[in-house]
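Lab notebook page, bench 4
Experiment: in silico fold of construct C2
Operator: M.H.
Input chain length: 312 residues
Purpose: comparison with the prior construct
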Amino acid sequence: MKSPIILVLALLSFSLSCSPSQRMGSTETAAQREDLQATENASAKTFSSANEAEKVALTQLDKSGETTEAADRKIIRNAEITIEVPSTTDAQHQVTYIAETRGGFVVTSEAKQRESNDPAKRTLDIKLVVRVPSNQFGRAFDEIKKLAGNTPSENVTSQDVTEDFIDLEARIKTQKALEVQFLEIMRQANKIADALEVQRQIAEVRTDIEKLEGRKRFLENRSSLSTINVNIQTPKPVIAVTETGFRQSLREAVSDSISLASDLVLFFARFLIMMAPVALFVLLPSGLMIRYLWRRAKRIRLAHALATPSPE
């Protein structure tokens, strides 16, 4: 009897002793899993942060590259604007001040008087050619535009000559390298004919280099300084539109008839005044002379008739 009971007690004590260890093992396993998951999450966050930092760095690098490329671009900007102002001379001084303030200058200034029958309406139309640095082009153009009460026309053009500029630089480098090679060949030339031939080739290469450098300087000048053509003029008179209708037409007809009558009276008055000297110094002496000659001829005929005997 004692052996089975002892066996049952041993089994029970074993089960009790194993259950806490199993619980502790399961608890430790869960804790390890949580730690592993936290570690994986931290690694993922670190990796994502690294990726984001790398993306931001690449974006900043791209932006800096684009900014550098944009700054190195050669763009020729030209503009032409017509402004209407009350005083063209004052506007001319203001445009000159704007150009000089922005680091530019006035290239040419041309003034022309507008034709008009009324001397009070004879105003000056002024044309200015202004050059300003390309980075001040937009500000200068806006300030000139603000001077106008009205802007009848404006035109802005841009031309990207970056590729031409890069091509010129490459061709200049090639020609200079070719010049160096010719100079080296000339040092090694033993015959006069060979030296003269190499010298002719060097002269041609130097001519090409000077032409390319001149074109390069031209593009640099045109791209660094923008041109603005400013036409300054006073507002043109507005043509009034008259109302139409029977009363208006009748009123205009009466006005035209009165004007015609006054013109006729003035015409005859001027004619009489102008003909008075002619009548006094030309017609009157001529009339007196003709009267004298006619009477003299009449007396001669009468005397001749009296002197001639009548037939019986």
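Observations: The first helix runs from residue 2 to 72. Residues 40 and 46 are 10 Å apart (CA to CA).
Next step: discuss at group meeting.
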